[in-house]
Design brief:
Distance between the termini: 27 Å
Order of helices and strands: EHEEEHHHHHH
Strand order of the largest sheet: 2-1-3-4
Low-confidence stretches: none
Radius of gyration: 17 Å
Number of strands: 4
């Protein structure tokens, strides 16, 4: 398999953590992608018409893209059990979607400053994205800590990767303030070998 990736993408990191948890990391060739919507660079346009990462080339089928699709494929391939069946699957999928939504807003905040000239940066837009993140984190703190403390699943990996990206790009927002339970959980989860092996370097 071949994974088109950037070490700074939270979506890619989610896939990389799954690869490590599923003991598949040594079966994947990593291809570093550099580019944006304005300057495509070496985005995998032939494999993914959207040009986004992560994109996974596999044997016997078209390339897969979107981290949720790739993670589900890898979990199915390895039988890791990150996507449970039965009633619990709906909690897992909802919390995974929450994690991806947090990533979406955090990445939009980053690109608002990275891609626009300073005089065109819309601070109110950045703050609005952070409001979404803060609201989601408050709900995780209030409603989902017992789930995060349970057996390993894709939702936990997604939340951890989202928090890691916030630390990397938006540490000044101090997401831990007022969220002691989530901060404590993340401190422990971040010590997993799969998280340490995939931690981006600023």
């Amino acid at each position: 398999m071949r994974l088109y990736y950037s070490p700074f993408s939270p979506y890619v990191r989610k896939v990389m953590v799954v690869l490590h948890e599923a003991a598949l990391a040594d079966q994947v060739e990593l291809v570093t992608v550099v580019g944006t919507a304005l300057e495509p660079g070496n985005q995998p346009l032939a494999q993914n018409p959207l040009g986004k990462i992560p994109t996974l080339e596999r044997e016997g089928g078209p390339a897969l893209y979107d981290s949720r699709v790739i993670c589900r494929y890898l979990d199915d391939r390895a039988g890791t059990g990150l996507y449970p069946s039965g009633a619990r699957q709906w909690d897992v999928l909802t919390l995974e979607a929450t994690a991806d939504g947090i990533m979406d807003s955090a990445v939009l905040m980053t690109y608002e400053r990275k891609l626009r000239p300073p005089e065109l940066v819309l601070d109110t837009y950045i703050d609005a994205q952070w409001t979404k993140i803060a609201r989601a984190l408050d709900v995780v703190e209030a409603r989902w800590l017992s789930h995060l403390a349970g057996p390993l699943d894709i939702a936990q990996i997604g939340i951890a990767c989202a928090l890691g990206y916030i630390d990397l790009r938006h540490d000044e927002r101090q997401w831990r303030k007022g969220r002691d339970g989530l901060a404590s959980w993340y401190a422990g989860f971040a010590g997993r070998p799969s998280m340490l092996a995939t931690a981006p370097q600023a």
